[in-house]
Design goal:
The structure holds two protein chains of two kinds. By secondary structure, chain A is of the alpha/beta class. Helices cover about 50% and strands about 10% of the residues of chain A. Chain B has two domains: about 120 residues, Rossmann fold (3-Layer(aba) Sandwich), CATH 3.40.50; about 110 residues, Rossmann fold (3-Layer(aba) Sandwich), CATH 3.40.50. In chain B, the strands form two sheets. Chain B has a four-stranded parallel sheet, sandwiched between helices. Chain B has a four-stranded parallel sheet with strand order 6-5-7-8, sandwiched between helices. In chain B, strand 7, helix 12 and strand 8 form a beta-alpha-beta unit. The two termini of chain B are about 20 Å apart. The mean pLDDT of chain B is about 95. Classes of the chains: A alpha/beta, B alpha/beta. The interface between A and B is large, with 67 and 69 residues.
């Protein structure tokens, strides 16, 4: 496994930062506990059936994606909306920038969307001299601080209220305010102006419903609903994997998403958006666009062994459950998606050679798979990816020492006598001064004491025991 | 109650914690089993498998299959190694591969120690005595791949003199993770410290687990932290009188 010195140091810094550790550990512990309560048998007796059902629905939708995408497009068109297929993230930015310029729009408001984080949409729009303002409170704080989301559903989970007070007072020039409710009021006052002045509202999509051509958004702050109804134009940006077949499938996902993500029965707002304002309606946008983005998704779709990586509904439960995420934090994951889901999708989207350490940043404890509402077998996929990493390294002649070590291991483990002798030699060797400075032993001992080698191996003791020579 | 049981002690127990293997044998013999140890055994292949070296793991797994192919009951003092054999051998030998049938025959004969006691020997009270307050650490593969949660606790509850006190995060990983412990030593040890801090709050003096690998990790960090805790494999507790 190869990891850059910068990344390694950055991980070590995060682990050694008591303030960060406390903020992340306590926030994720809270979310974790709320989830446990929300999916308990008393609360949700059919939780396990719902998970299986969600898994099968996603599987079916993705195996028939071409059909459902066409159906979705036809239904959006029938409602007076437009569907744009974007092959890359760049094309999404270009479409929105062109639209903004054609309509004379310079200010855009955005609701929380990991898909647009994935493609760095804000930066792309900024380069076109367009102002895109995040309106989710956490995202807004991070935009002011010039940081990327730390967590899929709780983007500013690493910030304490003191941090937020600093950011708001420094960036907005307002009086320092330590009370979270007051901080929210500051953001609310600023953002209200933006909502009213913006020409385009950008949203993501939690689900795209094929049989009704609807974009479904779930949220707690109400900012997403404002984003898609106050400005005259609404653009929803969604990965093609967000499709589900029928409106009647939604309850399965809505229940699982809110309960898994935040421990709520349902989020505060659930919006069903299908097309622009109709003749008799009093509000809503006059133009409605859905940008269906590929950006590598068909590559994942083509790989049946790891296809289920696309089932993810971005609830963030695997992050809260993951002891590694909770130690290293979201910003040590190289892409927009962090935690266990980030560890499996980043290498698949961006190639394995960029961050070959990612699939190894796991103790394979399985806590992620246990909480995943759509039953993605994350540990299995991590293992598949590790296998791909070693194959790739072999092809490129990299990481030869580790490969040699495992070849030697494999060879010795097939020769019981040699194994027994090697074991004893290692036990003797471990008593020699200086042995602990060798590679793996040194890495082990950097953090913990090394077990004392046993005076005799089990097989030696067993022979004595059988001969009646053991007390 | 009688029968033949073959021990797969695991390479870790063989080389570093032989007393755990002896304790397993003691408990099984007390229950009337005839216990054998096949000296050709080595490892299950998990270190290579988990590190992405599948061909290397396959070769070791093949060796395991050859050694144990005719055993009726194979008892293993580790949830992790048991799961490697009963779950991941199926990934190493997918449908259609030469050894698939052998894996299908062998896997149901492989038993994690506590599960064997409860489900094959059908015993909860093995007549053990251990004076002290203990806490039980759920090892991840036993818990999540083998579904072992209540079993070891039931066995502990029947030990005379023993008080079991639950920690708040019994099901969180100790941070070992095989080669993870040396690939990310700071993260791995950080996870152990979180666990140990939770254990210290219980007032227990002994941590019990069914996996020696977790205990090696916890013991190593305990010693570095200098806190008054000891670690014991469930078999060592059940063998004590």
């Amino acid at each position: 496994m190869i990891i850059s010195a910068e990344r390694k140091q950055s991980i070590e810094r995060a682990v050694a930062d008591p303030k960060l550790q406390l903020a992340v550990y306590s926030a994720t512990a809270r979310l974790k506990q709320k989830r446990v309560e929300a999916v308990s048998p008393a609360e949700l007796p059919d939780y396990q059936q719902l998970r299986e059902c969600a898994h099968q629905l996603k599987k079916h939708a993705l195996e028939n994606l071409d059909y459902y995408l066409e159906q979705f497009e036809a239904n959006v068109l029938a409602h007076g909306g437009k569907v744009i297929f974007a092959q890359t993230g760049k094309q999404v930015g270009e479409f929105i920038a062109t639209l903004a310029k054609q309509r004379g729009v310079s200010l855009l408001v955005k609701s929380k969307s990991m898909t647009t984080e994935e493609i760095h949409l804000n930066e792309a729009l900024e380069r076109e001299k367009l102002e895109a303002v995040e309106t989710d409170l956490g995202e807004y704080i991070l935009q002011l601080a010039h940081e990327r989301p730390f967590h899929i559903v709780a983007p500013a989970v690493h910030k304490t209220r003191h941090d937020v007070a600093d950011i708001l007072s420094q960036k907005l020039g307002v009086q320092r305010e330590e009370v979270p409710e007051h901080q929210a009021m500051i953001a609310r006052r600023t953002l209200r102006e933006k909502f009213l002045a913006a020409g385009i509202g950008i949203s993501g999509a939690n689900f795209l419903v094929a049989d009704s051509g609807a974009v479904v958004l779930v949220e707690n702050e109400g900012n997403a609903r404002l984003c898609v109804s106050a400005p005259p134009i609404h653009v929803a940006v969604a990965g093609i994997e967000k499709i589900i077949p029928r409106a009647q499938d939604l309850p399965v996902f809505l229940k699982l998403l809110a309960r898994s993500g935040t421990g709520q029965r349902l989020t505060v707002y659930t919006s069903f958006l299908s097309g622009p304002r109709r003749a008799a309606e009093v509000d809503g946008p006059s133009e409605f666009y859905v940008v269906l983005m590929n950006n590598g998704r068909t590559k994942l779709l083509a790989d049946s062994s790891k296809r289920e990586s696309l089932f993810c509904i971005r609830c963030g439960a695997c992050l809260n459950a993951c002891p590694v995420y909770r130690k290293i934090g979201g910003h040590n994951y190289p892409w927009a998606y962090s935690g266990p889901i980030g560890a499996i999708i980043t290498p698949q989207y961006q190639g394995l050679s960029q961050d070959p350490w990612l699939p190894y940043a796991s103790s394979l404890c399985g806590a992620c798979a246990e909480v995943c509402p759509v039953k993605i077998d994350i540990p299995r996929i991590l293992l598949e990816l590790r296998h791909e990493v070693t194959r790739e390294e072999r092809r490129q002649g990299k990481n030869g020492l580790e490969r040699f070590a495992f070849r030697a291991y494999s060879w010795v483990m097939r020769k019981p006598k040699l194994y027994a002798a090697a074991g004893r030699a290692a036990a003797l060797g471990a008593r020699l001064p200086g042995m602990l400075s060798l590679g793996p032993a040194r890495l082990w001992a950097s953090q913990r004491e090394t077990p004392k080698p046993a005076a005799a191996s089990f097989r030696q003791l067993w022979r004595q025991r059988q001969a009646g020579r053991l007390p | 109650m009688y029968g033949r049981v073959s021990l797969f002690v695991t390479c870790l127990v063989d080389q570093l914690f032989p007393n755990v293997g002896l304790a397993v044998a003691d408990v099984l013999e007390r229950l009337g089993y005839q216990v054998e140890f096949r000296p050709q055994q080595t490892c299950c292949g998990q270190p290579a498998f988990n590190s992405g070296y599948r061909e290397e793991a396959q070769a070791v797994a093949e060796h395991f299959i050859r050694v144990f192919r005719d055993a009726d009951f194979i008892v293993v003092p580790s949830g992790s190694c048991t799961s490697m054999i009963t779950h991941h051998f199926f990934e190493l030998f997918p449908a259609g591969s030469d050894l698939r049938e052998e894996v299908e025959y062998l896997a149901p004969r492989v038993w994690e120690f506590s599960k064997f006691l409860l489900e094959v020997a059908k015993v909860e009270d093995v007549g053990a005595r251990f004076e002290g307050v203990v806490t039980y650490h759920d090892s991840c593969h036993a818990l999540r791949e083998l579904g072992i949660r209540e079993g070891p606790r039931r066995l502990l509850a029947k030990v005379r003199g023993l008080t079991l006190r639950e920690m708040s995060i019994a099901e969180e990983c100790c941070g070992f993770g095989g080669t993870f412990s040396i690939k990310f030593p700071e993260v791995s040890a950080g996870m152990a410290r979180t666990k140990i801090e939770s254990i210290l709050k219980t007032g227990a003096s002994t941590i019990v687990s069914i996996d020696s690998s977790c205990l090696m990790q916890l013991q190593g960090v305990i010693a570095r932290m200098g806190v008054p805790l000891e670690t014991k494999h469930l078999a060592e507790i059940l063998a004590s009188r």
